[in-house]
Amino acid sequence: MFAIVETGGKQYKVKAGDVIEVELLPVAPGDTIELGRVLLVADGDEVKVGTPVVTGACVKATVLQETKGRKEIVFMYRPKKRIRQKTGHRQKYTQLRVDEIVL
Fold this sequence. Notes:
This protein has no helices and ten strands. By secondary structure, it is mainly beta. The chain has one domain.
C-alpha cells in the first residue's frame, strides 16, 4: 500500500515505514502528526484517486528530527564594476517516519 501526500507545496510518495524529509513544520521531535492532504491511495489493484483529495484518508507519521539541507552557494557579480557577492543558504527540513496509511 502506498499513498501520495501533499505538504509544503510538494508531493511525496510514501509507504508505511518510509522516512521522508518535508518542508519545516512547527512540531517537536517525537510528536505524531496527521497529513490530511492525501491525493492518491493504492492498495494492490485497488486505486483511489482524489478530486483533489481522497475523503477520509490520512497518513500518520512520527516526527524524528529537524535537519538542514546541503548548502547552496549564491554568487552574484557585475562585470567591469568590481562587485562580487557570495552568500549561502541552507534550507531547514523536518524528518518524518510514516507509521500508517488510514483510509
